[in-house]
Structures are given as C-alpha cells and as structure tokens.
Specification:
The protein is an alpha+beta fold and 286 residues long. The protein contains 7 helices and 13 strands.
C-alpha cells in the first residue's frame, strides 16, 4: 500500500468523496472543501471499506497489519493527511509508516488512465507532497517494540485493576472497539471472582446500542454535537460508556458496577481516573 499526499489548485472533476482508477485498489479522494470537511469530521470513516482487509495478529485479535504485498494506492489531499493517517494507525496498529523518498507519482499509463479519461487532466496537475508506505520491522527491532507495547498494555490494565480494587462501586473497566457489527474487548481489568463479578461479554450489546445512538444523533440534529457518554442503569447494575473517537471512530471506555446503588460513587471515581486512563491510551495508540 502506498499513500500519495497531493496538492493542486484544480478541483477534482467528480462530485463524490472519492473516485476509483480502474479498480477500488487505486483511489483518488476529492479535494473539494465540502468533502474534506466531511472526511475530517467523520474521522475518515466513509472510506473504511476501501482500505485493505489487513492480517489478524494471532497474539491479539484486535490488532491488524497491512500485508507487505498489498498493492493499494491512495491519493489523499494534504488537508486530509492527518485524519487519514490516524485512521490507518487505529486500524492497523502493528503497521509503521515512513516517507518513501524514492517513489514518484506514477505515470498515467502506469496507473491506468488511458485516452480521454476525465481524471487525466486533473491527475496531471497533482503535485505530490509526500509518499508514505508501511515499513517492515526486522527481527532485531521488532522485539523491543513488541515488549514496549506489552509494557504499555500491562500498565493500563494494572491501572484498571487498581481502580476496581478500591471501594468505589466499580467492578470492571475496559476499552472496546467496534467494527463491522462486531465488538471486541481490547483492554480489560481482571474479572472479579467475588459476588460482585460482572459479565463483560454482555457489553457487546451495550456498545452496539451506543453506536446506533451515535449514528442517529448526527442524523437527527447535526448542531447538537457528537454523543460523548451514555449511562445504562439496570436493576442489577450500571454500565457507563464514554466515546473516545481520538483513538478510533468506534472506541469506547466502559465502567461497570454489579449493583445499582453506587451510581454517584462510580461517577466520582470515573472522573478521578479518566485523565490517567486517557494518558495511557494516548501512549498506546500514539
């Protein structure tokens, strides 16, 4: 996969957000101001289906990388670069990116623009600002990186365990991600074995409800802003969900209690620990 960051004074000759070149493995994203605003506001999610499927890490099913033989090409306006790279890093967490100073913009023949294709004049005027591609770690560099990632994960989960070990009505803390109608638990506290044990697998349903509310909120009233938190109070417990789009469009922090009595304590201790959790998540997601 290669990402060409471009600038040009010409506007893209198509109305939508993107245009494939022969196939959806070669895509130009629009530089129209409205499309750039849409892309950045939705954190790049409208093009997620165009990205490579990636490889599932056998050690951690929430982590993907891009296969080295993937031949996808993306031409991205400079004003979308930061959002696009954050999206890639959130989806392909094992993949590192580096500038490729040896590769230039492919010719029209190489990319498959033939004859009087309506993209040809626009493509000719694209000025490539940078070319980015995945880098492959060798064995001597991979191990320290993996050790560092495991250390950060352990620090986060140790913090979660410290939180649930206090007298604060919090019985589970976890970070979930959601994509393609599937919810995964990325990081979690150690399940309690006492009578205050909670069923973390049931949170998948709560996250799906929250995702539905996220989508519905923007459709009903864009001026109301993004949905940030939700709290579900049951006769048998509490589930508090915080949306963390800075770490991926559908990334959530969940606090849970096995009783309904401690709603004020849960809120207090969630607030006390939130900054610490966000700091450690920032170190993990980069």
């Amino acid at each position: 996969m290669r990402v060409f960051i471009y600038q040009t004074s010409e506007e893209a000759p198509f109305e939508g957000l993107f245009e494939p070149i022969g196939s959806f493995k070669k895509v130009i994203l629009s530089n129209h101001a409205t499309q750039i605003e849409l892309f950045n506001r939705h954190l790049g999610s409208p093009i997620r289906d165009l990205l490579p499927e990636g490889s599932l890490d056998p050690q951690d099913e929430t982590v993907y990388d891009i296969p080295p033989n993937d031949e996808s090409l993306f031409f991205i306006p400079l004003d979308m670069k930061d959002t696009f790279m954050k999206l890639l890093k959130s989806l392909f967490r094992k993949t590192k990116w580096a500038e490729d100073n040896t590769t230039t913009k492919p010719s029209q023949d190489e990319i498959g623009l033939i004859g009087d294709n309506h993209l040809s004049p626009f493509y000719d005027k694209l000025e490539t600002q940078a070319v980015l591609q995945p880098t492959q770690d060798n064995d001597t560099t991979r191990q320290p990186n993996e050790d560092n990632e495991m250390s950060k994960k352990q620090e986060l989960e140790d913090l979660f365990n410290t939180i649930i070990g206090q007298d604060n009505e919090i019985d589970a803390v976890l970070v979930c991600t959601h994509d393609d109608n599937k919810t995964r638990i990325a990081y979690t506290s150690t399940p309690k074995t006492s009578r205050r044990k909670v069923d973390t697998d049931s949170f998948a349903v709560q996250i799906q409800h929250f995702v539905s509310m996220l989508k519905m909120t923007s459709k009903v009233n864009e001026d109301i802003g993004a949905l940030k938190t939700a709290e579900f109070l049951y006769s048998g417990g509490i589930v508090h969900i915080t949306h963390l789009p800075q770490f991926g469009e559908y990334t959530f922090l969940v606090f849970a209690s096995s009783t309904e009595e401690g709603i004020e304590l849960l809120a207090l201790h969630r607030k006390r620990n939130l900054d610490k959790i966000l700091e450690q998540l920032g170190a993990i997601f980069g």
